[in-house]
Amino acid sequence: MKSKVIVTSLFLFFLSLLQITCFSQDRIYLKSNFIQKGKVIEVTTEKVRYKKIEITNSPIFELLKEEVIKITYANGYTDYFDRSYLKTPVAVYDTIISSTDNYPNPPFEIGIEGGPNVSIWYGDSYWGNYFDYGIAFSGGFTFQYNFSKVFSIRTNISFERKSVNSKHYVTVFGDEWGMAEARVKNSLDYLILPILIRSNFGKRVKFFVDAGPYFGLLLQAREIDKMMMWDTTIIQKKTYYLNFDFGISAGLGISIPIGDHFLLSIEARDNLGLLPILDTWKIAKVNSTNLLMGLAYRFD
To answer: Which of 132, 139, 221 is nearest to 168 (CA)?
Structure first.
């Protein structure tokens, strides 16, 4: 019940954010160190014509092209007009590091992502031999703040199920007694919050790597037993596990723009748990590898 309330609240919060309206804008960098924001209408051999977005039904303004260093358009593409600027230390820093000067109003992204995952328990040889990997899923909402074209800070609020499988044999008594195989699935449901630093490479289509710590809150723990023809038994086992998890997240992926504002992403991310998960046997830790597919909306 608590997990449903949390997911519903996050969904409503996400919808409220989508109601925010914003407008893309171009940025004209002048030699006077002033940045003129607006919508570029035309670039001729001598002039740059633009409209000011903050003015309703704005007239067309003009700048001499010789006054302009560069224009960074809303889609991220940059046109340079003063090639001598490229040789300055500022331009080198701007190109390699892509400093925050490229984003006077740094863009903010919100989205959704999710996909399948594979989890294992580790700690000593017992866990590797007795428990096999399990396949489950994760999904949630993403929030990203772009400091520059290269560096971003990113977080997720997501639901992640981490499962492992095991099997053993039990003695069955009846008319004919014998041994029966029992299959057991242990599922841990977490609310996961990573805090990641992301580095992007490329122009329009971007490759990225990210890393940082993650924090997990255990919502539910279940053991699902199935033995031959008998009914499946579900046992609630949250009291056997610790409520909090902590570890390191690291991933790599690709981000593909769709139009001016939407971004499609695919990422492989590993969540390596560093804390024990069991309350009594504080050896076992959990590691999950997620294939995340996401869709984000970028606000200028």
So the answer is: 132
Say how far apart CA 139 and CA 160 lie, in whole Å. 7
Q: Do 245 and 117 lie in a common domain?
A: yes
CATH label of the domain that carries residue 179: 2.40.160.20
- pTM above the 0.85 mark? no
Tens-digit pLDDT profile for residues 233-268: 778 888 889 999 999 999 999 999 887 788 999 999
Read off the tokens for 266: 């695919």
> In total, how many domains does the chain have?
2
Residue linked to tokens 């597919």: 293
Residues 92 and 150 placed together within one structural domain of the fold: no
Domain that holds residue 58: 26-102
List, for residues 168-202, the tens digit of each pLDDT value.
665 555 555 556 667 788 899 999 999 999 999 88
The predicted-structure confidence for 64-94, as pLDDT tens digits, reads as follows: 988 888 898 887 788 888 766 655 554 544 4
End of a domain among 102, 123, 139? 102
Our CA dihedral for 273, 279, 280, 285, rounded to 10 degrees, sits at -10
Look at phi and psi of residue 249 and say left if phi exceeds 0, alpha if psi is from -120 to 50, else beta: beta
